[in-house]
Amino acid sequence: DAGVTQSPTHLIKTRGQQVTLRCSPKSGHDTVSWYQQALGQGPQFIFQYYEEEERQRGNFPDRFSGHQFPNYSSELNVNALLLGDSALYLCASSFELLYGYTFGSGTRLTVV
Amino acid sequence: GDSVTQMEGPVTLSEEAFLTINCTYTATGYPSLFWYVQYPGEGLQLLLKATKADDKGSNKGFEATYRKETTSFHLEKGSVQVSDSAVYFCALPAGAGSYQLTFGKGTKLSVIP
Predict the structure, then answer these.
(1) Is B106 within 8 Å of B5 (Cβ atoms)?
(2) A28 close to B (CB below 8 A)
(3) Could you read off the pLDDT of A49-75 as tens digits, one per residue?
(4) Which of A105, A107, A108 is the mutation pick for testing B, counting most B CBs within 10 A?
């Protein structure tokens, strides 16, 4: 049973560019959340998708947007990249929050 | 919103030593509480959880008891191994009905032979 799959694992972008990160949830999970983890910090909630709608959003600017597809997979898009967007981006899937999320291994984004 | 305060590291222990990582929470009501572990270069893995007061979560020799009297959820292990070297995060939902997990800043544990 595959867990949460994220792609790519690493990428380097130039300031001002746009990036798309992808996530396939664990089998049986219908909810996808995205977190940003800066070096040496705990993950920070970006947003959550359920039934192809953004259900909840954290304190991130509109440059961060997302999408969920009918097969429950999800994308995170970041426009106008800033140096401060360099971080590990984690995707987490769940069916019921009560049981905790299953996290992917993340995408390491470096903005230069 | 609800929050957790986690002891700061890094923590360095010798193999077979006893481990305690403190976590206290601030919340309205009695939320579920979680410990996650992040091994070097990897994402987060759920280590253990507790869903109500006095529950004890356990996994891989780690334990944590949900104590409402002290609003704590301290992580313990009786005898750590080199393979336990990782960053440990305490977490809870951001608020009643919230789908967001709020994490502590993490505690880096290094176990030396």
Answers:
(1) no
(2) no
(3) 998 999 999 999 999 999 999 999 999
(4) A105
